Design the sequence.
């Protein structure tokens, strides 16, 4: 049965705001819960959208329960999802990303509501273990390998992994209908926030480099930028999430990678590509320097990187998912938005 009312917890963040737009276009009724509405302000007066400005850490239990109970599907996007946050405030990261999200899982069990739980590709952790130096990660066969406790970056992935395991356990013991989504570095407009100064907090790499290009500070390559990521255009990602939402029978009780396997690059090459695309799109803009920096200097103690991760996208591809954006097209589309909006304008926080 096609869902009618969908609740998006964390629905005004980067992924949530794109999902809100798409689901309204597709005719759904939405309940969006978030701590602020800035990224979806343009939709607040829509007659099929109910917005609750609240922090689930402080909200009345009954309010959240009522929202869950009134929905056909809950999509849970609430998370701190930025490596700088895992390093700076690991306890709060677990409190929000595990304790609070687990309460939402339990509310779904209680009211028999289907759950689409956003997790992270970070749960695959480092390369190694049984997969040796395998770099393509499959949902149901790859090991999940975390670094030592003193590298507390892994607290985020560990919390997300335990949340996935609890979602799975509630499926076994309490008949919860669920799908877990593991995103692989989505990028696009409205991602994170821009920073005027390089030390003003650290958004994820695309927003960090975009800020450097717009506000003319260096693009920093952490540990030389040798590590790799597989970037996915947000609209391809949203197509995948909508397919999951609309095909419960296919995706029920499945973990699903969402990522474009062909879009792998080193961060070093990513920086040069972004600079190159910027030069094409904004020929008069000055080009910032690209500088290497140690991870300790950049993030502080407790950081350790994921070297490489490519999604096995077989589950989605078998259902017809066909990502449209290669890496260069992804950057051209996302960067032209920022250049149009911010070039020569006063810096505005997207936070
Ligand atoms: N990174 C970088 N410069 C920056 C921000 C990030 O070199 O200004 C690197 C980071 O060390 C990692 C990769 O880029 O190797 C991706 O980092 P991001 O924060 O986007 O998120 P992650 O994929 O690690 O969750």
Sequence:
């Amino acid at each position: 049965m096609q869902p009618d009312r969908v609740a998006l917890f964390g629905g005004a963040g980067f992924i949530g705001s794109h999902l809100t737009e798409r689901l309204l276009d597709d005719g759904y009724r939405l309940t969006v819960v978030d701590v602020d509405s800035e990224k979806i302000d343009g939709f607040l007066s829509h007659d099929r959208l109910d917005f609750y400005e609240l922090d689930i850490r402080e909200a009345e239990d009954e309010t959240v329960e009522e929202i869950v109970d009134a929905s056909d599907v809950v999509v849970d996007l609430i998370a701190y999802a930025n490596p700088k946050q895992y390093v700076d405030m690991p306890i709060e990261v677990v409190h929000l990303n595990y304790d609070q999200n687990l309460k939402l899982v339990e509310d779904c069990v209680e009211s028999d509501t289907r759950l689409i739980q956003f997790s992270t590709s970070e749960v695959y952790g480092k390369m190694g273990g049984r997969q040796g130096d395998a770099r393509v990660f499959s949902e149901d066969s790859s090991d999940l390998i975390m670094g030592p406790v003193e590298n507390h970056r892994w607290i985020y992935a560990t919390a997300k992994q335990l949340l996935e395991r609890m979602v799975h356990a509630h499926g076994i013991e309490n008949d919860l209908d669920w799908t877990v989504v593991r995103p692989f570095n989505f990028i696009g407009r409205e991602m994170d926030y821009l920073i005027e100064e390089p030390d003003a907090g650290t958004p994820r790499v695309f927003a960090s480099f975009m800020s450097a290009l717009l506000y003319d500070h260096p693009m920093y390559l952490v540990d030389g930028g040798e590590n790799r990521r597989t970037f996915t255009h947000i609209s391809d990602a949203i197509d995948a999430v909508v397919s999951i939402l609309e095909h419960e029978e296919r995706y029920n009780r499945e973990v699903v990678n969402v990522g474009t396997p062909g879009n792998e690059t080193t961060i070093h090459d990513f920086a040069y590509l972004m600079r190159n695309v910027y030069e094409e799109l904004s020929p008069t803009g000055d080009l910032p320097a690209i500088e290497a920096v140690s991870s300790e200097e950049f993030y502080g103690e407790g950081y350790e990187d994921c070297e490489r991760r490519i999604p096995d996208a077989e589950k989605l591809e078998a259902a017809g998912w066909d990502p449209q954006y290669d890496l260069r097209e992804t950057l051209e589309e996302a960067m032209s938005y920022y250049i149009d909006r911010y070039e020569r304008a006063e810096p505005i926080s997207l936070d």
The chain has a mean pLDDT of 94.
